[in-house]
Amino acid sequence: MKTFYWLVKREFWEHRGGFFWAPLISGSVFLVLNIMALITGEVLGNGSNTHFNIAGGLNLSGHMDADMLSKIGTGLDIAMYVVAGIVLMIMAIIVFFYCLGSLYDDRRDRSILFWKSLPISNRDTVLSKVVSASIVAPVIACVFGTAAGLLLLLIAAFTASLHGLNMWALLMNSHPLLVAINMISLIPLYAIWALPTIGWLMFCSAWARSKPFLWALLAPLAAGVIVSWFGLMGLFNLGSGWFWKNVVSRMLLSLIPGGWIRDAASIDNEPKDPSIILDHIGLAHNYATLASPDLWIGALAGIVLISAAIWLRRWRDDS
Amino acid sequence: MSAVITATGLSKRYKNSVALDNVSFQIPAGRIVGLIGPNGAGKTTALKAILGLTDFSGQLNVLGLDPRKQRDKLMEQVCFIADVAVLPRWLRVSEAVDFVANVHPRFDRAKCEAFLARTILTPGMRVRQMSKGMIVQLHLALVMAIDARLLILDEPTLGLDILYRKQFYQNLLEDYFDENKTIIVTTHQVEEVEHILTDLMFIRDGKIVLDADMDAIGERFIEVMVNGDRAEAARAMKPLDERQVFGKSIFLFDGVERSTLEAMGEVRRPSVSDLFVATMKGTYA
User: Fold this and answer.
1) Residue A246, exposed/middle/buried by CB under 10 A (0-12, 13-18, 19+)?
2) pTM to 2 decimals?
């Protein structure tokens, strides 16, 4: 257990830039851009004597009833999810390349010989990288993402208060804590959902003698093209769309946060009430995905690929 | 005295070459063995087989364990320095010490810090900022602080200047080696290790062509410097090698009675490198 903890720590040391600084910086950049936009809005608004608008064109300068306030609160919640979502998206890209390099980079620079000179099993080494990709990176990104969202919320409320709105009323109608808890509780689901992509990328990383990126990308795409072509020939009943959606995209795109939502009941295309959207982001709705066989078949494929990566890590001999 | 390594019928075949060809040998504890051979002779393959880094056919027993099946356990007792460039470039000195201290049950942190204190390395330094010599110093400090029974060195001083090379072997002898430890070293800089070796193994084309301890080698191989007029007589005795120096001929003999040779000229012990060159004659031809 202690060894495993230090293995994960080693991954963090090596990828501090991607795991820690990238979400911190992307969150900060997003905040700064928003502050700049708000200031611009303030300056322009004062100059031309128009009203300052926030949260989907709601007029904030008039009086508002409780219903309006609750809608704004919901809007602010969604804004928080969007900010966190952006940070998580950047994390997903970083983790994609992290997985591709995880079992390849040290073979290329031969530092694998140093790691293999220590009494550490290949299973633990590979699993520590899986945990870094599926848990450590998302947790850090979630923390920074929600922190950025919270700050944005405060800034927005503060700006609104400059226009005579009750800052506390706005804040009381949003649910920052709930948003934060939601985000964190979705990480286990995310980890299970992302397994096929993590497994596939790490398998390529352990297997490829060179250019794991090309293999990882080209093999599923080529398979998809071939299936589509045979599909055109009418050989498969399922249709090539099924293959692209359930095989190719699960192999390459499952790191995208919230990717499982398409499997849950579809969101109403034009929701009348923003709180409906929020329901869809809610925990119960998300965890309903656990009932879908897609999730588990994908996870199983991921586990098989990771086991193959462990075997390759043990026996791949190209130094 | 039990054997640290016992190999029987060890073979390893790559696609279009034979790296190890039915090799058998035994290495007892408390020895420093030089595994010497030309490029591509199978040295590294032999070491990789011992370390469980590659598959092979035949029997191999290292410290009572099978490197193929019990590698994780074996590595608690075995250390290796493979080449100068294997420490990851992002690693800091302090991180390296922390990591090894926490994953290796036989690592002595105080010892490692004492070794590091004698170098110019600082805890915050990253491997990418170090010279080759400093990287080896760090690696050696880590390895020497591990109480292992077998240390394997594969070209450990490649690319180092002479100060670092001398210091490397000196540290190893003074602060590390004892009768419970065994060291196997491969290198092309034979002159630098020949004084510390207790045993010598020559490997050529996947076969062990010489396996003896240094005392036996001193008895078996004799170099004699012969005047021109007696050169023909010496040649008739089938020397391993002949070379000319200052109008005299130097012959290298294998297994000829010392007294016979003393009658012919000045007798001395051949250097390992001369022995190596004579044994490997025609390797690249």
Assistant:
1) middle
2) 0.88
